[in-house]
Amino acid sequence: MKPKIILAIETSCDDTSIAAVKCSGSLTNPKFEVLKNIVSSQIKIHRPFGGVVPNLAKREHIKNLPKILKLISKDFDVKKIDYIAVTVGPGLEPALWTGISFAQELAAKLKKPLVGVNHMEGHLYSNWLAPAKNFKNLFPAISIVVSGGHTMLLLMQSAVKWKKLGETIDDAAGEAFDKVARMLELPYPGGPEIEKAALRGNSVAVKFPRPLLSSPKNPQKNYDFSFSGLKTSVLYYIRDHFNEKDLRNFKDDIAASFQQAVIDVLTQKTLSAAKQFKTKSVMLSGGVSANKTLREIMRHAVEQSGKKFFAPSFEFNTDNAAMIAAAAYFDLLQKKPSLKFEADSNLTI
Ligand code: KG4
Ligand code: ZN
Question: Fewest CB within 10 A of the end CB: N or C in the chain?
Fold first, then answer.
């Protein structure tokens, strides 16, 4: 296939993003050149509410999309694109619809074909976006996707063939970060705040549980995750040990101990799957992969076991449209029929 320029639109949660990506190469050796990737964050709008308010997200997306497109058009001729890609799910329904409607209008105006993309596949393929990565000899691979809404472990036989080994049975890892941050009176989104506090704290100060981790006593391989109990342990710990005044002195230790529990679970399950299935590499992605402590601990463990480790460059960890363009290109290479242009908040991978 000749190189294609894909203009992608992402509005599944609280980031409005449009990207233009030049995509070329085959399924085994694809290349992505990110020409533009603009992300407009709505953190300030949602912060007073302690989380994302779907209708406010919708309002902001409607406001931001034309502004971002205008910015992109300044130094890039949008008439030169080959395809328009848009996230159709999973995500917040009102937010998803704004991107879909915008993409449909643009596709009609520019007379370009439209591709519907799964947001989780976007995260999965965000690992292919970084420049200068050697993607030869990667498979089989374990891919762990950790975001605000999902935590899943995949066994990938190739870039487009995979099997889900496990996923969260309750809260996603990012959701647990956000909820624990709220308990510690840290602002939304909680992940980066917990990471900052954890750098000042002691990660062995409190021994929080490591849910669903196999142990010599319980050796059964289980690749599902559960973070709800861990979150409740933090809540009870705070309730039982401190009054409000004291909490200030222990926030950092609680944040570090909680973060370590999440990292231990994610890293050990990933490594155990990589060993069981004798994979050549491990790929980490999703918003939580922005956590440097997690990346470094997982990288170290994976490399120690003789496997390659990949995580996206920082601009592609949290939601962005460049990863949606990459996922669309993989769909096009496979000649997959496009997903329906209807918001599907529960779309699975
Ligand atoms: O992938 P993403 O941008 O959106 C979803 O698809 O959900 O992930 C957002 C999640 C939030 O829960 C946020 O707290 C978490 O990723 N996150 C982090 C960090 N940066 C973002 N979690 C831990 N450490 C971080 N540095
Ligand atoms: Zn996401």
Answer: N
The rounded Å distance from CA 123 to ligand 2 centre is 6
Task: Verify whether ligand 1 is closer than 6 Å to residue 90 (CB atom).
Answer: no
Tell me if 162 is assigned to some domain: yes
Mean pLDDT of the chain: 94
CA quadruple 80, 113, 324, 100: dihedral positive or negative? positive
Does 68 reside within a domain?
Answer: yes
Instruction: State the Cα–Cα distance between residues 100 and 87, nearest whole angstrom.
Output: 7
User: For ligand 1, is residue 329 a contact (CB within 6 Å)?
Assistant: no
Are 188 and 214 found together in one domain? yes
Residue 248 banded pLDDT, cuts 50, 70, 90: confident
Q: Please, which residues have CB within 8 angstroms of residue 123's CB and are 6 or more apart in sequence?
A: 145, 147, 285, 286, 323
Judged against a pLDDT cut of 80, whether residue 63 lies above it is answered with yes
Mean pLDDT, to the nearest integer, of 301-319? 96
Q: What residues make up the domain containing 94?
A: 4-125+316-334
